[in-house]
Amino acid sequence: MLCVERLCAGYAGGIVLHEVSFRVQPGSIQAVVGRNGAGKSTLVHTIAGLVPASSGRIEIGGVHVAGRQPHRIAQSGVGLVPQGRRVFSRLTVAEHLVLAAAPWRAATAGSEGWTVARILELLPRLAERLRHRGCELSGGEQQMLAIARALLGQPRVLLLDEPCEGLSPDLAARVRGLISALAADGLTVLLVEQQLQYAIEIADRVAVLEYGRVIYDRPTGEARVDPAPLAAMLSVAAVPPPPANRPGPRLWADTP
Ligand SMILES: Nc1ncnc2c1ncn2[C@@H]1O[C@H](COP(=O)(O)OP(=O)(O)OP(=O)(O)O)[C@@H](O)[C@H]1O
């Protein structure tokens, strides 16, 4: 489980996160939405140890990790899929996977751990692209590679920062399908998402960050029935409820 309690963090210029609290149960997806500059990436980076927490708690499976170095937090079971994917343009897919599957990481993998073979079984497209460099991959392939890299760190908690950004609707739907499958497999997922309808589609709960504060945190079931109040918080056009003959999540996935 990921437990964040009264977390404050920021940069030299000032505090960005103000007493942020939420819990994510194993096997569930917590979405975080908010306007540009609300502090979503700062939250993810603080949990990953890239931005120091000034106060508050971050617990992974009951262990307090705030203040540890980023590589120690990764070893505690936190995987990060950063915004913009950040794959190396000159390294091949195979080289990315070999680097991510470093020996200390493989040693921590149990029988259920992630191996390159298991990754390629899950993501056959990467198997076809092993010799291609990062710069030669499509946006969707880069995103799959970024997720694969994080999984090879054997995470219990996966942090995804706008994984569908810049992807075609079809590729974005595939990425969301992958995230849902990983959560169904027991992973704890924190998903930063710009598109409210995507967040509602796959997350169990959705939180809204505004100026670094959580102003809403509820199960997504409510927003699926009536997304208007949530959409109003984000000042985006409300998504109409789905017609009765189609399941909601898919319709919203198709909404541009
Ligand atoms: N490295 C940094 N140094 C100083 N200030 C930063 C840094 N990164 C972000 N900020 C500031 O922190 C605030 C929150 O930024 P953050 O990137 O966390 O927001 P966000 O919700 O992820 O935005 P977006 O949706 O545009 O990605 C902004 O005011 C931003 O200018």
From TrEMBL:
The keyword Nucleotide-binding belongs to this UniProt entry's keyword annotation: yes
Gene3D superfamilies associated with the record: P-loop containing nucleotide triphosphate hydrolases (3.40.50.300)
GO molecular function: ATP binding; ATP hydrolysis activity; branched-chain amino acid transmembrane transporter activity
SUPFAM superfamilies: P-loop containing nucleoside triphosphate hydrolases
Keyword RNA-binding: no
Keywords: Amino-acid transport, ATP-binding, Nucleotide-binding, Transport
Pfam families: ABC_tran
GO biological process: L-amino acid transport
Domain ABC transporter stretches: 2-236
Entry similarity comment: Belongs to the ABC transporter superfamily.
Protein name according to UniProt: ABC transporter ATP-binding protein
Lineage of the organism: Bacteria, Bacillati, Actinomycetota, Actinomycetes, Micromonosporales
